[in-house]
Amino acid sequence: MTLQARKPVDDGEKAHWLAVRPRLVLASAFMLFLELALIRWTGSNIVHLSYFTNFVLLGSFLGIGLGFLRVGRSRRQPYYSPVVLAVLAIVVLAFPVTVDRDTEGVLYWTSLSTTGPPAWLILPVIFCAAALVLMGPAELVGRCFPELPRLEAYRYDLIGSLTGIAAFTALSFLSAPPVFWALIAAICYGVLLVPRPRSLYLGLVTVPSLAVVGLLLTETLTAGAVWSPYYKVTSKPLTVLGVPVTDIAVNGIPHQQAVPAATRLQWEAQYGLPYERAARPPQDVLIVGAGSGTDVAIALSKGARRVDAVEIDPKLRELGGSVHPDRPYDDPRVTTHITDGRAFLERGGGAYDLILFALPDSLTLVSGASSLRLESYLFTEEAMRAARARLKPGGTFSMYNYYRESWLVDRLAATMQRAFGHKPCVDVVSTAGQQAVITAGLTAADQRCAAEWPGAAAGTPPPADDDRPFLYLHDATIPPLYLVTLGLILAVSLIAVRVVAGPYRRMRPYRDLFLLGVAFMLLETKSVTGFALLFGTTWVVNAVVFAGVLVAVLAAVEVTRRFRTPPLPVMYAVLLAGLALAWLVPNAWLLSLPVPLRVVAAVTVAFLPIFAANVVFAKRFAETADATTSFGANLLGAMVGGCLEYAALVIGYKGLLVVAALLYVGAFALLPRRAAATV
């Protein structure tokens, strides 16, 4: 199956000094790199986006789809992209905002203060700006597609996307501040946009790009921040009640304080209660959420002979090692593990007298998953059973935090009761903010409660589980805030598509490709959340999963290009069989496997339907009459899929497989008869 390249649609492309294939790879890498950078950077300055990373992601998908649909409708270079990026940088740095944590249906921990412009004003600006910024690189990618055979163009697009992920992952590993992201963006704009006429290029490309670099350099030099793969971490020394402490904030939210153990125990009784509720003094202690080290220092002060300190963020651990007055991480009794707490529990190994969840509130979502926080899988019934399995005879498990709602305290206590088989100790230290400690012994005899917990109040939601790990969601519903926001996003997207791409009838022949995009986004979400459960919600796992998805897509394209594959009806059947397999294989069975076997099984279960889905897409895409319009329709479908991810709040992540299967059946039903018969 060989397709002839078509004549370029843009006369300006003929003058570009870079050949089409390397230009396509570079533009695709830049497009994905810029998307990831926007998500990270805007979330660090507009705290609302730390909880709604999908907001920028949806704007990016809209912009990418519009960029492809714009190809052929304009011969002008997309000089608007660097200009909008510069305006966005100015707005974000001039008007940073924090989240309104009193919003109905959404529960946040930490401070209740709100600063900056209201969410209803700043969020539409961010969404539209993200779409316009990403539309530029997408248009540059789209202009390369008509110059190459369909699948060859798609192949180089995927290679570029993998390159973009690798570049951003490398910068995350090096903890590079955003000024380096801006430098890469400036270089890519400079290389990809044709400098003709030069005065226009200088004013619309060079000046805005350098302005973004300058703004982010100023932020880097003045904020005193270190950039972890999750947060912008800032710290400053304070004196509180005559005691020197270090105050630590992440993404602008007060997060932790490095305080001497004796002082912390004096100020807040909750820190000592896990040790008082234990039947015997704990010798071997596991602390999940060790952070800057105060909880570790308290464990040492209580006589622990061995402390395993688990912290997901390497920079928070480094900061604790350098600023904590007790220097707990220098103690030879302490071993640090930079990993996800649930993954550490599932790994097996040593047993403990005390396992402590020490305020593990991440304040951020997992990139690519609309409602999954970094700590979501710590508070499920399965996680507490995993903790119980790591206790020594006579051991105890405990957690504390400022839970803010009494129903949340009851929910966690009921979860612990179900996991341990008896009522836990529940100490509400302060009703203001529901500061509470919940402790359960391996048996009822292994705990010392001040009073018996009366049980969960009527109306308390059931324990969260690994399929619906949404601890802070009271009911199995999509909060009204999300419904209104997603409705507005879809309405704006419909208008934008009509304005930029013209009549909708252009995309009518590619309705099946649109549905393929919707379904594939749900598959990707299921993969991200599934691997987060099986191997941890760390940024490394997240990057590997995204790269793995692209590798599976690239493999499907290469197989389709080089070999004769079964006709589309057969491939749809293979796809549905893969979805059925993913539905039937329980997470509990995968978690019970040794890690090497777990990797093999998880990759097989997750990537079989992804591979089959992309063979379907590749075969269909190869025969389309209009490469850019059909690809744009698929990308817009991915944006709708990003909205549909929120259905997991109601039906769970496993339920997304059913929705995806229905969408694939719909795509097959809309498949043109000629394509079904010949491809």
TrEMBL record:
Keywords: Membrane, Polyamine biosynthesis, Transferase, Transmembrane, Transmembrane helix. The keyword Transmembrane helix applies. InterPro entries: SAM-dependent_MTases_sf. Its EC number is 2.5.1.16. GO terms for molecular function: spermidine synthase activity. The chain crosses the membrane at residues 24-43, 49-72, 79-99, 119-141, 153-173, 179-195, 202-227, 481-501, 513-533, 539-557, 569-589, 595-617, 629-649, 655-671. The keyword Transferase applies. It comes from the Bacteria. PANTHER family: POLYAMINE AMINOPROPYLTRANSFERASE 2 (PTHR43317:SF11), THERMOSPERMINE SYNTHASE ACAULIS5 (PTHR43317). This is Spermidine synthase.
